[in-house]
Amino acid sequence: MSAARATVAVVRSERAPLVDTLHEWVTTVDHKRLGILYIIYALLFLAFGGIEAIIIRIQLIRPHNTFVSPQVFNRMFTMHGTTMIFFAAMPLVFGFANYLVPLMIGARDTAFPRLNAFSFWLTAFGGLLLYFSFLGGNGLYGAGNAPDVGWFAYAPLTSRTFSPGHSTDFWILALLLSGIGSMGTAINIAATVLCMRCPGMTLGKMPLLAWLNFTMAGLVILSMSPLTAAQLMLLVDRYLGGHFFDVQAGGSAVLWMHFFWIFGHPEVYVLAIPAFAFASEIIPVFSRKPIFGYPVMVAATLAIGFISMSVWAHHMFTVGMTSAGNTFFVLSTMAIAVPTGIKIFNWLATIWGGKVQYRTPMLFCVAFLFQFLIAGLTGIMLAAAPFDWQLSGSYFVVAHFHYVIVGGILFTIFGAFYYWFPKMSGRMYNEALGKVHFWLFTAGFHLTFDFMHVPGVLGMPRRIYTYEPGRGWDIWNLVITIGVLFQAVATLVFLGNLLWSKLWGKVAGSDPWDGWTLEWSTASPPPAYNFPSLPEVRSRRPLWDLKHPEDPDWHYE
Amino acid sequence: MRALTTTGPEHVPERQPEWRLPARGPVAMYFLIAAEAAIFTIFVVAYIFYVGKSATGPQPAAVLHAPLFLTACLLSSSLTTHLAVRGLRSRNVRRFTWWWCGTVILGGIFVAGTAREWRHLVYQDGLTIQTNLFGTTYYSLVGLHAFHVIAGLLALAVVLVFAIRGDVRQEHSARTEVLSMYWHFVDAVWVVIFTVVYLIGR
Fold it and tell me: How far is it, in rounded angstroms, from Cα A140 to Cα A149?
């Protein structure tokens, strides 16, 4: 005991003072540290967004509830949506991309390390700006504090007339700032993939994660910019007295919808494609088989990226477009099911006949396969314009997109956390706690979002503050809120597991999963320079080649 | 048999030809240009969508005059940057400095001309960003472009100062080329804006 304590004391005394450590983290340009900063920042905002979701669900637990006022309710769903998309999901995706892409392509850092730090801090201050609105949003008119215009902020709700005060301005500036940060990161990721690969790693030999994050970066570059442009127009309207979205001067509210969803739909794939990337790395390793159909996976990813740019108006069927417009967006939306289906079949074929190990990351990925399939199926239902006319703006839609974002994207992100935690922290997570997290969260997820479809079909509109008893919605809303409790507890278990394992987990070693990609060839956590000497690769699974010199992959590729 | 064994598993094929990757500067600039092009596309779409929908006030046909001289200045500044970079690549720093200086002057003329045009629109024709939809979309689109021209001019001017101090050498030609790519893009956007605003939009 005393010897152990003595070593601890020695380690403590060798540590740099806290101020120095903080200074190092704030001024860092290391892609791994920036990745971890992105992830910690995202977890903080995930907690904020989660608390807002809990407030929404407590308010809706029974009819005529008055847990919060209608004004606060509006702020809660606006902040929940904005926070989760822009300040939880995107930083999570960027954090993992930042951490993993250079390691997996055998590079020492990203192409532009300082741009990387700049982009992170822009995003970070964007999030602070959004939450500062709780304090500073009152403005001169004394109305409102946090933004309450909904996360897609339809015109003319955002005009000076209907949104006095500064809360909407904080929303605009937060998204503008983080949008520019996202663009910087996306340019950096794309340039890193094209310009920093280690010798021998041709595009066809890159890990799928690099390919998918490259596609994600392309989507961010092409879809984040329209949002930035639309936010600039909104600023012109609000501050310079412009008329872009001012219907009284001939402006068009529908134009805002188009501009927002030209961003909004590709955004789903900005989040989903990295989720696919995690699944494409985790499923093969825990099935002990290489990914099935690598070239088709790449082609399907690019197809998804390409088609997703032309489906946005399926969010607007109820606006009243021409029948030609409706038909185009119905068909393009349904077309996206084809490459997505190809991906699901490829993952299934990867698992098929493999020696499957159900560790926590794999559990999350298997649940992802089921849930993402269901999310895709309700997506095809909503893509049919007549069906959408009936259910648009109902809780069915809310259930659908939470199935995509939670059931699909968040599940693989949890999987990614467990899979790469040993690499990032150098220690193993607690497997038992990981499984508790998985089963609690899965149960909670299905309680909440399976049953959320029902009140939607029964006609419950989204964003309503409260409802009349006796419409058949009561019991479902009760069950939905109970499910949230499970998810909240599961998330606490998850955070506890991360903290506990970082401090007291077993030392993981460089390659705990017997992995095949380059990040497992260096120490855990990797040194600042990543690789003592730059690796040279000859196949898609360089570590397999290293471990099996008698039967390397490059014989077959 | 012997021929077979040499291609067998234990035979290590000779190293691949030299490993070459694209330079990161131009690649990142291409992606930045793609992002900027998307921003401009949205503003151009808004301009086209609102052409002729202004309820009141001056209409484009009444107040807009195609700025041919300014357009000629901006477009020829693309040529001068190209010549400047070519000069630097062939180690001719003096030629680089002169052509680069010409680019800054031509860009400066363009910005000054836009300012004059706006002054006339505001004070003679009574068109501001608040007047009507035409004012809002016109000043936003042309202003966004002017903002990019000014940002480019600042960057060009910094390089010019370095060049005059004698700090620019041949090894910097790749970097100046990245900047010139941005400048070419700004010019190309002007071709689109000129066509949409001054030719079709009237």
Answer: 18
**Is residue A321 one of the residues assigned to a domain?**
yes
Which residue intervals of A352-430 are DSSP H helices? 360-383, 385-391, 395-402, 411-425
Q: Considering only CB atoms, which residues of chain A are within 8 Å of chain B?
A: 111-112, 183, 186-188, 190-191, 194-197, 199-200, 217, 221-226, 228-230, 232-233, 236-237, 240-244, 249-252, 255, 259, 262, 550-552, 555
Q: Tell me whether residue B117 is in a domain.
A: yes
- Whether residue B5 lies inside any domain: the answer is no
Question: Tokens at residue A467, please?
Answer: 């409802």
Residue A10 lies in a domain: no
pLDDT digits (tens, 9 = 90+) for A178-234: 999 999 999 999 999 999 999 999 999 999 999 999 999 999 999 999 999 999 999
Interface test with A, best of B11, B29, B33, B39 (most A CBs within 10 A): B39
User: Domain span at residue B162?
Assistant: 36-51+60-200
> Looking at the complex, does the CB of residue B53 fall below 8 Å from at least one CB of chain A?
yes
Comparing CB atoms, the residue among A222, A240, A551 nearest residue B34 is: A222
* Residue pLDDT tens, chain B, 202 long: 333 333 444 445 555 568 899 999 999 999 999 999 999 999 999 999 999 998 888 999 999 999 999 999 999 999 999 999 999 999 999 999 999 999 999 999 999 999 999 999 999 999 999 999 999 999 999 999 999 999 999 999 999 999 999 999 999 999 999 999 999 999 999 999 999 999 998 8
pLDDT at A142: 52
Task: Give the amino acid at A445.
Answer: F
On chain A, the residues whose CB falls within 8 A of the CB of B24 are 111-112, 191, 194-196
Angle at A466 between CA A461 and CA A467, to 5 degrees: 70
Number of domains in chain A: 1
Name the minimum distance, in Å, from the CA of B161 to any CA of chain A. 24
Cβ separation A229–B39 shorter than 8 A: yes
List the single residue in A with minimal CA-CA distance to B41: A226
pTM, rounded to two decimals: 0.93
d(CA A547, CA B113): 68
CA A533 to chain centre: 33
Kindly tell me if the per-residue pLDDT of A490 is higher than 50.
yes
Query: Which residues does chain B have within 8 Å of residue A552's beta carbon, measured at their own beta carbons?
Result: 9
Contact in structure between A111 and B28 (CB atoms under 8 Å): yes
Number of domains in chain B: 1
Q: Is residue A12 part of a domain?
A: no
Choose the closest CB to B39 out of A111, A225, A240.
Answer: A225
The CATH number given to whatever domain includes residue A229 is 1.20.210.10
The predicted-structure confidence for A271-303, as pLDDT tens digits, reads as follows 999 999 999 999 999 999 999 999 999 999 999
Cα–Cα distances in Å, from A510 out to A385, A421, A517, A518?
51, 12, 12, 11
Nearest to A221 among B31, B42, B130 (CB): B31
CB contact under 8 A, B31 and A191: yes
Does residue B49 sit at the A interface (CB-CB below 8 Å)? yes
Residue B3: inside a domain? no
Q: Domain range for residue A272?
A: 29-555
Alpha-carbon gap: B114 to the closest alpha carbon of chain A (Å): 19
pLDDT at residue number B10: 44
| A270, part of any domain | yes
Question: Distance between terminal CA atoms of chain B?
Answer: 80
Decide: B197 and B142 in contact? Cβ < 8 Å.
yes
**Does residue B28 belong to any structural domain of this protein?**
no
The band of A9, judged by pLDDT with boundaries at 50, 70 and 90, is very low
Q: How confident is the model at residue A165 (pLDDT cuts 50, 70, 90)?
A: confident
8 Å CB contact of A225 and B132: no
Closest Cα of chain B to A240: distance in Å? 7
Rounded mean pLDDT of A160-170? 88
Q: Give me the CATH number covering residue B194.
A: 1.20.120.80
Task: Kindly determine whether residue A221 and residue B38, on different chains, have CB atoms separated by under 8 Å.
Answer: yes
Give the pLDDT confidence of A528-551 residue by residue, as tens digits: 999 999 999 999 999 999 999 999
CA distances from A382 to A60, A232, A315, A329, A385 (A): 24, 31, 9, 11, 7
